[in-house]
Design a protein that fits this description.
The chain has 13 helices and 12 strands. With 366 residues, it is an alpha+beta fold. The protein has one domain: DD-peptidase/beta-lactamase superfamily (Beta-lactamase). Strands 3-2-1-12-11-10-9 form a 7-stranded antiparallel β-sheet, with helices on both faces. A hairpin with a 4-residue loop joins strand 11 and strand 12. Helix 2 packs antiparallel against helix 13. The protein is globular, with a radius of gyration of 20 Å. The N terminus is likely disordered.
Length: 366
Amino acid sequence: MKKTLLLNIVFIPFFGIAQIQTIFQSKIDSIYEKNKDAVGIIVHVEAPKQNLSWSYAKGVSDIKTNEILKNQQPVLIASNTKPYVAAAILRLVEKNDILIDEPIKKLLSKKTRLLFEKDGYDLNAITVKHLLSHTSGIQDYVDDAYFEFVNQHPQYKWKKEEQIKRAIEIGKPQKVGEKFSYGDINYLLLTEIIEQKTHQPFYTAIRDLLKYKELGLTKTWFIDLEKYPTKTLPLAHQYSDKNKWDSYDINPSWDLYGGGGIASTAKESALFFQYLFDGKIIQNKKILDLMSTYVLPSDQSKYCLGIFHFDMGFNAYYHGGWWGTDVIYSPETDATISVFTLQKSFQHQINPFIGKEFQKILLQKD
């Protein structure tokens, strides 16, 4: 305790806001110089206790034009959409509109319910919590053949109903509640539950439930389902060299209906996590704590409800997205780091390193 207090005292005069920003910028510059094939890196640090809200970008936003990447350019955050959907569901729990352990049978549309029951699913055994934690036993519609179809038909416009039918066609019911099996289908069904309960399109309901207007989240939206926000820079291009994809060439519908779909800036992605875990969205602490509480034993799954809970040398509440987006919140620092790398193949070597290093600086750890 004395050592921690001493470090805090030493930290204040020698590492002010300007110095921290200089350290952060120097680290990103150094990483980029060694990894220019990463195309571009956008980082935001939101640390209220240090009075720090800082964005930085390095690289280009388009490899064809070499246009300089700006720190307020939005990107597709892909599976980082899932924490938003989970939080919206928990808001409905907070409002007593649904129960966390409620079976999904009566929560889904009749059409969807009949499709799953015809395939042998017991929807009375699958609960909202199972969907949130990816323990539902429902086969995902995303597999190698799905990626190959997208590769061959990049502008194909997927419908939500097609993805549900595909999940049913390629898989059979598995045991419920026993195994973590990550699948976008779980979150697609959660958005249907949101629609059934709110009688609104899920993207409109999520905007209301998560208090976008109240919190000033003006550059966060579901791509192609909502209008492009005014006074918002163009989307940065995102790349997958393995698939030879440029995000501009792929119809967003392949990853749109809850498993992914949100576009946002690094700043607003960090702010969402910050507002969420600071209790500004879900005010009932017991319900909020469910998001970071393990559902299965932690040696079996680090996934909670829409959030991974990792030990990174500090408690880390985390989610990542397919296109190279990561967001890490630490309750110890009460700070959030979002890292967007535009070349997907560099995500796992750049993003966690930056997130860990920056959180350690805020924690004053070596």
